[in-house]
UniProtKB/TrEMBL annotation:
GO biological process, one term: DNA repair
Entry keyword set: DNA damage, DNA repair
Protein name (database record): Helix-hairpin-helix protein
Annotated SUPFAM superfamilies: BRCT domain, RuvA domain 2-like
Length: 322
């Protein structure tokens, strides 16, 4: 975009509102008002982290570092493995992952599963409570399962949707996907030859890592939550597209319920889950501490807004529980 619009450092640009949120840089506001002090924006030729040459890919000629041993990418991959959509190791944040990687004790996702509390306590500013929480969080993440492990492995071109479709197509483990071959993979809805080739290339490259994860007791097999929910008879939310917002808690115990778990209950009740409110949303389910913007948007679009207590009682009546 910088290239196409001839934008330089120091330019005054025209920014337009486009779509919903993201401002669109239309171009230089008035090129005749340039002072001559503007500087060209020169794209880098080497990776700032590993200094390897960059490769241009895609229609917009994006620059990629294709060095699989690139340190910056190693840290990002570890952070990605630990992220909520993947293994969800929520007690270890990005800063700690970086410190552990710098210390040389984290390189692959499987290395998380060999960390011990004693080893963590050797670090400055690491307390007993944090170390215990980190180890517990790592331990829980061993149940990651096929869909979230596929997301966590960050395979180029394979999206969260790809991971979900592979599970629904009947693959039972990540190794089965690695062994499926192109013919087996393109038979899955919406998986084309490029995505199939990327899955095959990267899962084969990752075979030693998959083996290490298995040996560390990490589940890479399909879980019930990876498959479409079985819709209960008399499902109260059948045919409805719903968005869940705010903090959700079980009214019987008062305990906090993770949003994905609640969404799954809504799925069992027949709902289709969406992430943001749009004209096709039927219901906005609100928990505690809801931001005003989602509710305002729902009201503007005429979407019904319902408190979680109403939905919980419908779920209990239909016998749908955690
Ligand atoms: Zn690099």
């Amino acid at each position: 975009m910088i290239r196409a619009r001839g934008i330089k450092i120091g330019d005054t640009v025209l920014v337009r509102r486009a779509g919903d949120v993201i401002p669109f840089v239309a171009g230089v506001l008035d090129a005749s008002r340039r002072t001559g002090a503007e500087r060209d924006i020169v794209p880098p030729t080497t990776c700032p982290s590993c200094q390897q040459p960059l490769s241009e890919q895609g229609n917009s000629r994006e620059l990629f570092c294709v060095n699989v041993a690139c340190p910056a990418q190693t840290v990002r991959r570890l952070i990605h493995w630990a992220s909520r959509a993947a293994a969800d190791i929520d007690a270890i944040g990005g800063v700690w992952i970086e410190r552990l990687a710098d210390a040389g004790i984290l390189e692959h996702p499987s290395d998380f599963y060999h960390l011990t509390k004693e080893r963590l306590l050797e670090f400055d500013r690491m307390g007993e409570v944090s170390a215990t929480r980190m180890i517990e969080s790592i331990d829980t993440s061993r149940q990651v399962g096929l869909r979230r492990a596929l997301i966590g492995l960050a395979i180029p071109m394979a999206s969260e949707g790809t991971a979900a479709r592979l599970c629904r197509a009947g693959f039972g483990s990540v190794e089965e996907i690695a062994d499926a071959g192109e013919v087996g993979l393109v038979a899955v809805d919406d998986i084309g030859p490029k995505v199939a080739a990327s899955l095959i290339e990267h899962l084969n490259r990752l075979r030693p890592e998959l083996q290490r994860l298995r040996e560390a007791g990490v589940s890479l097999d399909v879980r019930e939550e990876d498959l479409p929910p079985v819709v209960a008879a008399g499902a109260p939310l059948a045919g409805k597209t719903v968005v869940v917002t705010g903090a959700i808690s079980d009214p019987r115990s008062g305990e906090k319920v993770p949003r994905p778990a609640f969404q799954r209950l809504c799925g069992k009740a027949g709902a289709t889950i969406a992430s943001s409110v749009s004209a096709s949303t039927d219901l906005l389910i609100t928990g505690a501490d809801v931001g005003a913007s989602k509710v305002t948007k729902a009201e503007k679009l005429g979407v019904e807004v319902v408190d979680q207590s109403e939905i919980w009682s419908q779920l209990f009546t239909a016998g749908i529980t955690l």
